[in-house]
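Incident log, structure service

09:12 report received: a user says their structure output differs between two submissions of the same chain.
09:20 pulled the input from the user's history:
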Amino acid sequence: MKSADYWIEKLQLVPLPEEGGMYREIYRAEERIAADALPARFGGDRCFSTSIYYLLRHPEFSALHRLHQDEIWHFYEGDRLSVCILGETGACRVEQMGRNADRGEHLQLVLRAGEIFGAAVARSDGYALIGCTVAPGFEFQDFELVDRESLLAAYPENRDVILQYTR
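09:34 re-ran on a clean worker, output below:
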């Protein structure tokens, strides 16, 4: 298995603002969807789809956030990745990404529009390289980093998870 530094250099990854980790956009569709054909939450045109490489290495984490659109995560390389998803009712579920299906790890994971989610690498010396595909295409105004205090007020039963996945 290659190192995190290898992938960062080879894929020319850069720090991802606010969320954490390293990324590089690799695809942005040229065709666009008109604003009037999209739900009002988008506030403008969007391209059909976007895709990025995304790398997390311990102790970095993907901070709890939500998007206006669905996002599909694709596991490529590295160690098991734990993805924490907070539901509207406050229920928290953790999905595992990786290559070991016998341990319940997923190669792909769908995160629905509006779900609050974050992720961390399971091993203390590990990393995970994934891809993220978003449709309609991602724009930074579609991203909301969720505030720790508002999450603690809304979901006090998930205090430990919220503290782990927020800054």
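09:41 both user submissions now match this output. Likely a transient worker issue. Closing.
09:42 reviewer note: Helices lie at 4-10, 148-154, 159-164. The chain has one domain: 4-164.
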